[in-house]
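Board notes, transcribed. Complex of a protein with coenzyme A.
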Amino acid sequence: MTRPILKKTGVVDVGLGRNVTIVQPSNLYGCQLGDDVFVGPFVEIQKDVTVGNRTRIQSHSFVCELVTIGDDCFVGHGVMFINDTFATGGPARGKRKLWKSTTVGDRVSIGSNATILPVRICDDVVIGAGAVVTKDITKPGIYAGNPARWRRDSMPAKRAVSRSPRTAKPARTSTAS
Ligand SMILES: CC(C)(COP(=O)(O)OP(=O)(O)OC[C@H]1O[C@@H](n2cnc3c(N)ncnc32)[C@H](O)[C@@H]1OP(=O)(O)O)[C@@H](O)C(=O)NCCC(=O)NCCS
C-alpha cells in the first residue's frame, strides 16, 4: 500500500511585527506581517506577501504570492486572491512569469467570499461579500457583484478595522466588523 506525502501546516520564515496573532492551524511561509496583524485559522499566506500594520485576515482566506496588502485592512472570511489567471488556457504550473500581482491599498475592507483577481485597489475601498474583482479600483467607494462594480461612495462611519487585535480574543474566529 502506498503512503501519501504528508506535509504539515506551520509558520515558517515569517517576518513578524509586534503583537501579531496567528490562530492555528494556518499555513504561512516566507511572508511579512506588520504590527498588530491578526490572522484567523485555516488561512494560507504564501511567500513574499506583505501584510500591513493592523490588518486582519479572517479564517479560511488564501493570500497567494505577489499580493501586497496595506495598513488597516480587513480581509473577510474565505477571501481568495488569485495570481494565476490561466492566461495560457490552464494553470501556469509554477511558471512564475505568468503570474500577476495584486496590490491592496490602506483601509480596504474585503467582504467574505470575495475573489480578487490580479488588480490594484486604491485606499478606502469596501468590497462586498461574494464580489469578484476583475479590474483595478482607482476610486474610493463601495463595490459589489460579479464582476464587482462601483455602488456608491464610502460610508462616512469607520470602515476597515473597527477593533484592535489587542482586544480580540484569539480563539474566536468570527468577527464583529
Ligand atoms: C456591499 C455592502 C458593503 C453594501 O452594503 P450596503 O450599502 O449597506 O447595501 P444594502 O444592504 O443597502 O444593499 C444595497 C443594494 O446592494 C445589494 N447588495 C448588497 N450587498 C451586496 C453584495 N455583497 N453583492 C451584491 N449585491 C449586494 C442589495 O441587494 C441591494 O440591492 P437593491 O438596491 O437592488 O435592493 C454589504 O452588503 C456587504 O456585502 N458587506 C460585506 C460584509 C462582510 O462580508 N463582512 C465580513 C465579516 S462577517
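Confidence is low (pLDDT under 50) at residues 163-177. Residues 131 and 145 are 5 Å apart (CA to CA).
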